[in-house]
Structure formats: C-alpha cells, structure tokens
Specification:
With 216 residues, this protein is mainly α. Helix content is 82%, strand content 0%. The chain has seven helices and no strands. The chain has helices spanning 2-32, 35-52, 55-75, 78-86, 93-149, 158-180, 192-210. Helix 2 runs parallel beside helix 5 (93-149). The protein is globular, with a radius of gyration of 22 Å.
C-alpha cells in the first residue's frame, strides 16, 4: 500500500513539473515572440485546418473558436487578471518603459494564444465526433476479448497493462503541451487530434484486453 501511494505521489509530482515547465515556456514565448510573427504562425495553422475539412465544417469550427476566444478574453475576466498579476508595479521610469513594452506584447500575444487554444480545442471536438465510431469499435472489440479471456487460464499481461497506463499519463502531458505550444508537427497538425484519439482508444482497448483474472 505504501508503495502504491508513493508511486502516485511521484507520478503527480512529474505531471506538476511538466505542467510548470510548459507554462513557463509558454510565458517566455509570449514575452519574447513578436506579435506579428506569432499571429502569422497561428493564421497559417488555421489555413492548414481549413484545407483539411469541408467549408461548412470550417465555418462552424471557426465561429465556435471565435466565441470561445471572446469568452476567455472578454467575458471571464481571467485574461485581465492574468496580465495584472504578471506585470510588476513600476518603480522607475526605465521600468515603466520596459513594463509597457512587455505589457503590450503580452496583451497581444495573450489574445493570440487564447485563439490558438480555442482553435485546437474545437479541432479536437471535431475529430472526436469523426473518430468516435472507430474508437467505440476498438474498445468494444477489446471488451469481447476481455470476456473471452476471463474464463481461461493464462494470457493475463499485467506488465503490458502498466505500460499502457503510463503511456496514457504521458499522452495527457503531450495534450497539455499541444494546447500551449506553437505548431510543432507542421502540416500534419490538422490530423494530430485524430491520431491522438485513436491512439488513446488503442491504449484503452489494450488495457481492457490484457487485464483479466487469468493466471500468467
């Protein structure tokens, strides 16, 4: 029991560390990247997505993205709070000049980041709808395999189950990094959510298929 608790704490600490590093990298990127360059990259990303789906689907996805961005930037108040906490109080005239430059950059890049995250979330929702039948079929097939294995000896593979669970934890970290980071998969970005969701379905099906009461 003590080992299990320790293992959980260790996993949580790793996730928190990766999350902290991702947020720190995001803030550094917002401070150092020129708004025009950042905006051009996000626009290019939206064009890539637009080309990969039908015009009607893009219209719906784009409107939902803009609505989400508006809610986060203007409606929630979180964006203003974020800027107020990041910027220190001015102590000298020189600090004021630097603060005002960084504040303007943060203000613009923060809105672009909000659009990027909203775009990727709506893109995930779109691909979840598209890939849902395939994911259900993969998981349902593993359930049938699990039922068949439950009544025979041998075949259980707990080590593989543990490996799949660890990979799922890592995939959640990748998802968080994907939401915050600039485009790191190039022209394959529009299809990343599809392969990600199918990969998660395969991992879940592998866990169900190999986790039963047989004796190894």
């Amino acid at each position: 029991m003590k080992t299990a608790v320790t293992s959980k704490h260790t996993r949580l600490e790793i996730i928190l560390l990766i999350s902290s590093l991702s947020v720190a990298a995001m803030l550094l990127m917002l401070l150092l990247t020129e708004p025009e360059e950042y905006k051009a990259n996000v626009i290019q990303e939206s064009y890539q997505i637009k080309k990969s789906i039908s015009p009607n689907d893009w219209d719906v996805l784009h409107k939902e993205t803009l609505n989400l961005q508006d809610e986060w930037v203007n409606g929630s108040g979180l964006y203003k709070w974020f800027l107020s906490k990041l910027m220190p109080e001015k102590e000298t005239e020189w600090d004021g000049v630097i603060g005002s430059t960084f504040q303007e950059r943060l203000s613009i890049n923060g809105q672009i980041l909000a659009y990027q995250i909203a775009l990727r979330i709506t893109m995930f929702k779109y691909w979840l709808f598209v890939s849902l039948p395939l994911c259900i079929a993969l998981i349902y097939g593993s359930i049938n395999k699990h039922k068949a294995n439950a009544y025979r000896f041998g075949g259980a593979k707990p080590n593989i189950v543990r490996l799949y669970i660890k990979i799922i934890w890592i995939s959640f970290c990748i998802f968080a990094f994907f939401m915050l980071a600039p485009n790191f998969v190039g022209r394959f970005l529009p299809y990343f959510p599809f392969f990600y969701l199918v990969g998660i379905a395969l991992l879940i099906s592998g866990i169900i298929r190999n986790f039963h009461k047989g004796t190894s």
